[in-house]
Design goal:
The protein has about 325 residues and is mainly alpha-helical. The protein is built from 14 helices and 4 strands. Helices cover about 60% and strands about 5% of the residues. It has a two-stranded antiparallel sheet with strand order 1-2. A two-stranded antiparallel ribbon has the order 3-4. β1 and β2 form a beta hairpin.
Amino acid sequence: MKLITTIDEIQESIPVLFTSSIDRVKPFIGSAERNFLLAVLGRDQYQVLVDAYNEADHNADSIADEEIKEAVKISQRIISNLGYLTGLPVLNVNFSDSGITVTSNAETKQAFKWQVDEVKASIQELGFTAIEELLIYMEEYAPDKFPEYLNSTNYLKHQEYLIRSAAEFSENFNIGGSRYIFKTLSYLMKRVEEQIVKKLYSPAFFESLKSGDLSGKKLELVTDYIAPGIALLTGAKAVVERVITFKNGVAAVNIDGNYDSEKNNMSATREQVTLAVDQLNTDGNAFLQGGLQFILDNVSDFPGFEPIVPRKKRNLPNSSDKGIYAA
């Protein structure tokens, strides 16, 4: 826990009691720093913020550089909200020799489950909104102040993919333009490119589409066919692997985990999810196949394209003597 040291700093983001102990929440704040902030910023940029905070005697308002100060204060909102979100189940109970208990008396009663759920949803929204605010601030409003982030593997790896921005991804699969969700989905997007797209279009041709500025038919191929296919198939994998959930038709990070998702998953909901995944896969594959047809219809505009001939399956005769049975 390096960017928050007092309960007062947490209270600027979330209304915890003044009597709360920083030691009690420290494990959850530290976890949020590692799992969310460090994962987004990269180690070098994270360390720059930590150093500035330490040099200011653990007082963000005393940081001289205005841009770094703003980044630290946004970071504190991230880890305060997401730290408490992680810690709510534990902070709500007491541990003793007699087991796990909750405190309830005439003055303070336990909140109903629906109230707890609404609080969790609100805290989660505040935390992830702060992540978006930090990313936008570093990338658009003060990029010269954050070279460590803009030169980090965390940031540059997205330039390796065909779809390189959250806005472009959202044009085909609605993630609300979220930079954080786009980063979260990147490993799935890479899998789609490697396992599906390259096998359809050939590795060399696909890589040529990712290098340089596109125009004409090549730009049309990418914009109208390949990019939508990649986004939809990535979305399907994200739903299956429970990386995301949906709120009002927009993809959101699934932070509840598999246990809560399964516990609250009605059979009808499972059926709806299955139908959604099937539809995403069907539409995604249709876009990619449409792209192949588009190339064939405009073959003179794609001189580097060579169709991949699928391997012919070997026909093995059935033989009871040799134990070979081919369907």
